[in-house]
Amino acid sequence: MKIVDIRATTVTMPLEAPLRHSNGAHWGRFVRTVVEVEADNGLIGLGEMGGGGQSAEAAVTGLKPYLVGHDPARTEALRWMLANPTASLYNNRTQLLAAIEFACLDLQGRELGVPVHELLGGKVRDRVEFASYLFFRHPADDGTGEIRTAEQLVEHARALVDEHGFRVHKLKGGVFPPDYERECFRALAEAFPGHRVRFDPNGAFSVEEAIRFARGIEDLDNDYLEDPTWGLNGMRRVRENTPIPLATNTVVVNFEQLAANVLDPAVDVILLDTTFWGGIRPCIKAAGVCETFQLGVAVHSSGELGIQLATMLHLGAVVPNLAFAADAHYHHLRDDIIVGGKLPYDGGTIAVPEAPGLGVELDRDKLAEYAELFRELGPYPYDRDPARPDWYPLLPNTDWADPS
């Protein structure tokens, strides 16, 4: 095969309600860019990346001179063509590379008639378990969906358990004062005996606050405490002062940082993201390093639609040392841009796709519908909160939202 064209379409996908986090909020929608890589045999491979608009579309189509005429099976060459580390000092294309890698693996699988996991060594599990990714939420435009109190949080989690069967629960924090969030987290854990929990304030706490927070939840059945503070040294200091394993998707996101963490451990569990690491294959390489040095591995969520979710499922299928449930924002979505709609949960798990390639097909009508919605609504500032228009966080943060 040879690549003959590449196209990008930005879409807006509505959420049940705006999701709050330490830097601001997702304003009731995700903005994603769908990438299509067409080969000379008429097959089209699918990719996806976060963000969107004219800049993302221009960045993707700007790769045409690199890609047209390239064999999509040569994914290792693509890494150097698009994301050479010295060139990336000036033009960081890691997330672009990931979207192209997804599409090239999809093309290979479609051409050979096999699912992507067969190209990656073969699956060791048929289904991937997921956690109920929970957020404090602003109410939606119709007034529904707010999560501000412990009671609302537990009620929402119970509805997700009843509908999807989750047995692991992750709470995104860093929004309200730490003592308030700790009590909400404790209420969540105590409402589901026998389930496991994890907490993630996105690095918003000082080291000392993170240690204090950790000591207040050490009796719970914690998978890990994710990014309680910022930086490898800060995480190392917290790790020295709590028995709870620490996890990250922010301070170990490449192989140099992974090597530093092996030499002087600061993090116990590496959250691999198929976008942030530059594709599925780099995540598998990183998982191998983690297996060698007995670091834990989980799969991180970056606000994916069905295409990237499929990459997470193929990754989860082939990594033997995936000891934790994966994260996914997926249950917050109102719809998807793949044929058949959203992939279903069963018992807190999603089945690994078995159709050729990534195993998902693009719904052209949905793509057009949500591309039009993006043109109507435009982007939103991820690092701002619609309820606090003049606010921005410091690091460590001390200016918390008022839970009352």
From TrEMBL:
Superkingdom of the source species? Bacteria
Pathway membership = Carbohydrate acid metabolism; D-glucarate degradation; 2,5-dioxopentanoate from D-glucarate: step 1/2
Q: InterPro entries in the record, alphabetically?
A: DgoD-like (IPR034593), Enolase-like_C_sf (IPR036849), Enolase-like_N (IPR029017), Enolase_C-like (IPR029065), Mandel_Rmase/mucon_lact_enz_CS (IPR018110), Mandelate_racemase_C (IPR013342), Mandelate_racemase_N_dom (IPR013341)
What does UniProt give as the signal peptide span? none
EC top class, as a word: lyase
In this protein, which residues make up the domain named Mandelate racemase/muconate lactonizing enzyme C-terminal?
A: 150-245
| Enzyme Commission number(s) of this protein | 4.2.1.40
Q: Which GO terms describe its biological process?
A: amino acid catabolic process
Q: What is this protein called?
A: glucarate dehydratase
Native organism is Kribbella capetownensis
